[in-house]
Structures are given as structure tokens and as C-alpha cells.
Design a protein that fits this description.
- 47% of the residues lie in helices and 19% in strands.
- The radius of gyration is 17 Å and the shape is elongated.
- The protein has five helices and five strands; from the N terminus they run βαβααααβββ.
- It is an alpha/beta fold.
Length: 124
């Protein structure tokens, strides 16, 4: 099994702009640039507000239980369906969860997590 990781980090706006400028300079010189993906927050407090215990529980439950719908996920978690949907949509915006529409029978949304680890990177 191939392990896929998601990188989460803390990076100020200034650091992000500096890195973007370096990448653009290298590209303009015709150099190859390795694509890096990740989710970055400006500070630890911002990250804590977004990656709450409940949202991390959602990710873990999807990975372990493979619910067939958002409704089933809410039942497994013993949480209100509306709150689970809100959290899933937010996690989708961050790229941490994928929501697929089923094509068979009654339409339902199937949440999936296609990575094995979240790596936290904090520069000092």
C-alpha cells in the first residue's frame, strides 16, 4: 500500500509571498520547480480554530469506517447531520476530504479521505 501524506504548516503571509516570488523567478529562468502541496495557516491559533477535535474525528472516522454517506457518518459520530455537513464542506475547501455524489439509487454524498497521514510542519 502506498502511503499518501498531507502537509499542514504554519507560514506567515510574508513567507508565502517570498516563496511564491522565488518559484516565479526560477520558472522565468526556465528551471524546473517541484510541485509542493499543502495547507498552510498564518499561526497556530488559526490552525487550531480550523482543525478542531471534531473535524479531526471526522477525518479519522471516514478513513477507518468508510461511511457510505454523510448521513451514515453523522450516525456513526452521534452528531447532528447539518453540523457534519458544514464541517465536511469546510474540510473539502481545505482539500482534506473529497465528497463524491453516488450515481446509483437515491443520490447521496460519499465522503472519502485518500491519504494516510497528516504531517505538521512548523518553522522556528
Amino acid at each position: 500500500m502506498k502511503v499518501k501524506n498531507v502537509k499542514i504548516g504554519i507560514r506567515t503571509k510574508e513567507e508565502a509571498f517570498i516563496e511564491a516570488k522565488e518559484v516565479m523567478n526560477r520558472l522565468s529562468k526556465g528551471e524546473k520547480v517541484k510541485m509542493q502541496t499543502g495547507v498552510y495557516f498564518e499561526n497556530l491559533d488559526a490552525m487550531r480554530k480550523i482543525l478542531t477535535e471534531k473535524r479531526l474525528e471526522i477525518l479519522h472516522t471516514i478513513k477507518e469506517k468508510h461511511p457510505s454517506s454523510t448521513y451514515e457518518l453523522a450516525k456513526i459520530l452521534h452528531r447532528d447531520l447539518t453540523n457534519v455537513i458544514d464541517d465536511l464542506n469546510y474540510l473539502k475547501e481545505l482539500g482534506l476530504v473529497e465528497l463524491k455524489k453516488s450515481k446509483t439509487g437515491r443520490e447521496k454524498t460519499i465522503p472519502t479521505v485518500d491519504y494516510d497521514k497528516i504531517l505538521l510542519e512548523i518553522g522556528v
